[in-house]
Amino acid sequence: MYVGYEEFTDTPNLHKLQALEQAGHPVIIIRLKEAMDLGSEFYRWEIAVAVVGIVLGINPFDQPNVQAAKTATDALMKVVTEKGQLPSPGQPAASQDGVSYYAPVTGSDAAGVLGAFFQQAKPGDFLSLQAYLHESEKLNAELAEFRRLVQDKLRIATTSGYGPRFLHSTGQYHKGGPNTGLFVQFTADHPQDLPLPGRTYTFGTFENAQAQGDLEALRNNDRRALHIHLGPNPEQGMQTVLAALQAALAHVS
Q1: Phi, psi (5° rounding) for residue 198?
Q2: What is the pLDDT of residues 219-243, one digit of tens each?
Q3: Of 4, 14, 53, 94, which has the most beta carbons under 10 Å away?
C-alpha cells in the first residue's frame, strides 16, 4: 500500500513498488491531490477495516484485551487512592547505573538479563518497544538505535511507540494476537510532575499505572515482556541500556 501526491514524483519508492509487483506481491497505489485528502483516506480505511472484520466473522469493535489493560489500570489507581502510591513492581532482575530491569529471566547484570530475554527470540517474532516517556528527538534516535541493533542481530521485525497512545492502535494485537512478540516497556521518574485536577494523584502516577496495567495484561496473556525503568533522566538511561544491549547481543546466538 502506497499513498502519495499526484504532483510529487517519488521515483525511489515507485521503483521499489514496481519490484514488489514484478515479484508477484499485491500493490495498491493511491494518489492524493493535497494534504486535506488524508481525511478521506482515514474514512476509507476505517470503513475497509470494519467491512473486512465482518467478512472474517470478527467484531471490528470488540477489544477485550484492551479493556483488560484498562481494568488492571483501574485496580492500580484504587490502590493509589487508598494507599497514596502504586504497588511495588517487585525485585528487579538486575539494577545497573541507575537503570532497573524487571523480567522473569535471570542474569548477573544488565547485559545478562537482556541477553536472556532476547535469547527467547524465534524466527517470525517481532520486537515492540513501548516508551512511556516524554518524546524527544534524542529519545527517538535512541529507540531507533535499539531497534537497529536487535534487527541486525536477530533478523526480526521491530516496532516502537509512545505510551499510552499506542494502546489504542496496537494494544489489542499485542495481547490478543499471535504470541510472537517480545515487548520492552520503558518508564522513567517524573521530576516535573503535575497534580491531576480533582484527584489525589499526579499525571505521572497515572501514566505509570497505565504502563504497569498493560504490563500486567501482557504477562497475563503469557507474553514475553521486559520492563526497564530508566530513572530520573530517560535519555541518559537509554544510553546505559544501549551499551548493555550491545554487550548482550554479542552473546546471543
Answers
A1: 80, 5
A2: 999 999 999 999 999 999 999 999 9
A3: 94
- Greater confidence (253 vs 173) lies with 173
Amino acid at 159: T
pTM for the model: 0.82
Q: Cell 538505535, residue?
A: 145
Question: b/e for 126-162, b at 16 or more Cβ within 10 A?
Answer: bbbbbbbbeeeeebeebbeebbebbeebbebebebbb
- At 147, list the grid cell: 531497534
Measured CA to CA in angstroms, residue 191 lies from 40, 205, 239 at distances of 41, 11, 19
Kindly list the structural domains of the chain, giving each domain's residue range(s) and its CATH number in brackets, ordered by start: 2-55 (no CATH), 64-249 (3.40.50.10490)
**pLDDT > 90: what percent of the chain?**
81
CB 124 within 8 A of CB 221: no
pLDDT at 167 (0 to 100): 87
Beta bridge partners of 101: 94, 228
Assess whether pLDDT exceeds 90 at residue 39: yes
